[in-house]
Amino acid sequence: DIVMTQSPDSLAVSLGERATINCKSSQSVLYSSNSKNYLAWFQQKPGQPPKLLIYWASTRESGVPDRFSGSGSGTDFTLTISSLQAEDAAVYYCQQYFSTPQTFGQGTKLEIK
Amino acid sequence: QLQLQESGPGLVKPSETLSLTCTVSGGSISSSDYYWGWIRQPPGKGLEWIGTIYYSGATYYNPSLKSRVTIFVDTSKNQFSLRLSSVTAADTALYYCARHYLPAAILSWFDPWGQGTLVTVSS
């Protein structure tokens, strides 16, 4: 299984500041034949299912504010929120879909400072 | 717009079988070449993929649960279902159904998701 490890487990960021969440996979999720990284990011708020933010490591889902961006390749990935808004308080998960079993990171709880 | 809704008992006794159904609306399971999955989330914890079924009936299970999991599809009702046998307290979780986003691709992200249903294992 590919193990996904997120860091930090939690962070508190002030409104308007940048938030950065990291995700590391135990093996590369870059598929050489199409040069795509098989990694997604989700946001989950209490009482709600995960909401897709980013796929292919850096493609923003339609309707997701452009303050959310994804970057990285191979085994190291980052979700960046450029200017934190109050509604961004949530738990964020990365997911690899390079191979089954598809696996998720343990989650990063983002709070407003 | 495609929507998924989980249903089933909220309380299951230890050693018994957990049974859940996901009803799909806004689209047909049988007329599309998508994969449909189950994911669970223990209270306060992270997400675990349980397994997936293709519209044709082919199944793929997480090896950690494979001996206890069965997923099947009922195209006449536009539903797919999960059975997890010999449950213990460790199976207490919020259970979600979701579609693999890309057609004909199990290796794709999950979207959309159902709202989830909480199943508690307790005597």
Rg of chain B (C-alpha, Å) = 14 Å
Topology of chain B as a string of helices (H) and strands (E): EEEEEEEEEEE
Strand content of chain B: over 45%
Number of strands of chain A: 13
Determine the number of helices of chain B (DSSP H or I, runs of at least 4 residues): 0
Q: What is the share of helical residues of chain B?
A: under 10%
Question: Your description of this structure?
Answer:
Chain A is mostly beta strands. Chain A has strands spanning 4-7, 10-13, 19-25, 30-31, 36-37, 39-44, 51-55, 59-60, 68-73, 76-81, 90-96, 103-104, 108-112. In chain A, the strands form three sheets. In chain A, strands 2, 6, 7, 8, 11, 12 and 13 form a seven-stranded mixed β-sheet that branches. The relative contact order of chain A is 0.33. Chain B is mainly β. Chain B is built from no helices and eleven strands. In chain B, the strands form two sheets. In chain B, strands 2, 4, 5, 6, 9, 10 and 11 form a seven-stranded mixed β-sheet that branches. Chain B is globular. The N and C termini of chain B lie far apart (39 Å). The mean pLDDT of chain B is 94. Chains A and B meet through strand 12 of A and strand 5 and strand 10 of B.
Give a quick rundown of the structure.
The complex is a heterodimer of chains A (113) and B (123). Chain A has strands at 4-7, 10-13, 19-25, 30-31, 36-37, 39-44, 51-55, 59-60, 68-73, 76-81, 90-96, 103-104, 108-112.
